[in-house]
Amino acid sequence: MNKLLTTVFALAVASVTGAALSQEIKGDAKAGEKINAMCIGCHGIVGYQASFPQVYKVPMISGQGAKYIVNALVQYKGGERKHPTMQAIATSLTDQDMANLAAYYSTHGGESVKPPEKPAMEPGTKAAALLKTGNCAACHGANFSTPLDPSYPKLAGQHKDYLLVALRSYSVEGNPMWGRAHASMSGTVKAAQKAVGPHEFEAQIRETASYLASLPTELKVVPESRFR
Ligand code: HEC
Ligand code: HEC
Predict the structure, then answer these.
(1) In terms of CB atoms within 10 Å, which end of the chain has fewer, N or C?
(2) How confident is the model at residue 225 (pLDDT cuts 50, 70, 90)?
(3) Is the link from the previous residue into 53 a cis peptide, with omega within 30 of 0?
(4) Cα–Cα distance, 108 to 141 (Å, whole number)
(5) What does the pLDDT look like over 67-122, one tens digit per residue?
(6) Rounded Cα gap, residues 97 and 87, in angstroms
């Protein structure tokens, strides 16, 4: 192998192991707080809306699981998750920055009240059908706030319009600006869509997003003063 190729190969290996290792780097919440100024303009404002790919509320990340936050940031940086602003921001972060920000946001606003193991409220017929076909609770927990694996997101109480955009994004392919490629979620969403057809699927995800958003939550927006 010539020298240039060897270097390129070594770099590629380094970046792959870097992504795998990033989940294990220990985060420092205090260090995360110091760099969160570049996040609060969107994630620290109650009701703040994004306008791409449509208008929806920016997701709540305070109280979200630390490993999931890192997982999401790594995917924006790596391009598996496409979204122009978040990709630009994630690209500027090191693995250590991500771990620090995740430590900060997962504990932000103090200890969350754990929702009951099973929600008291039943989903409507269309949401129930999707939750059953997709076996969603198996990964996200019966209360949708106790994920099977800490790198999976808490969904309960997340903004309805964001959940809807997120669910749509898993079946988007070939769009240079938008779409998510996560294997198990894309597989689940595409199979569910194929089972009932695009029209019924849209009705199902609308009802599911409303249902999930209405459940007791650990997620929150913690407003912060810009003048600290
Ligand atoms: C300009 C507004 C803006 C800024 C600034 C911003 N974000 Fe985001 N963030 C968004 C939007 C919009 C999304 C949803 C993108 C999508 O649809 O995938 C998002 C998504 C996320 C997600 C994924 C949430 C989930 O539930 O999957 C994480 C984690 C995140 N941002 C962390 C951060 C961190 C950490 C910072 C600061 C370093 C930051 N963001 C700065 C707008 C912003
Ligand atoms: C095999 C496990 C698994 C199953 C089954 C599953 N999910 Fe997920 N889900 C995940 C993982 C992992 C992610 C994070 C994917 C990523 O990083 O983009 C996720 C992400 C999501 C998101 C995006 C959350 C956010 O904050 O951006 C939504 C919404 C969601 N799932 C809803 C569902 C629904 C509804 C079902 C059932 C139809 C379902 N999931 C089934 C594992 C699963």
Answers:
(1) C
(2) low
(3) yes
(4) 22
(5) 999 999 999 999 999 999 999 999 999 999 999 999 999 999 888 889 999 999 99
(6) 15
The finding on whether 130 has its CB within 6 A of some atom of ligand 2 is yes
Give the dihedral sign, CA 115/162/187/94: negative
Neighbour-count burial of 20, counting CB atoms closer than 10 A to its CB (0-12 exposed, 13-18 middle, 19+ buried): exposed
Which ligand is closest to the CA of 33, given by its number? 1
Report the C-alpha gap between 50 and 84 in whole angstroms: 11
Determine the distance separating the centroid of ligand 2 and the alpha carbon of 225, expressed in angstroms. Answer: 33
What's the length of the chain?
A: 228
| Ligand 2 atom nearest to CA at 75 | 17
Q: From the CA of 192, how far away is ligand 1's center (Å)?
A: 27
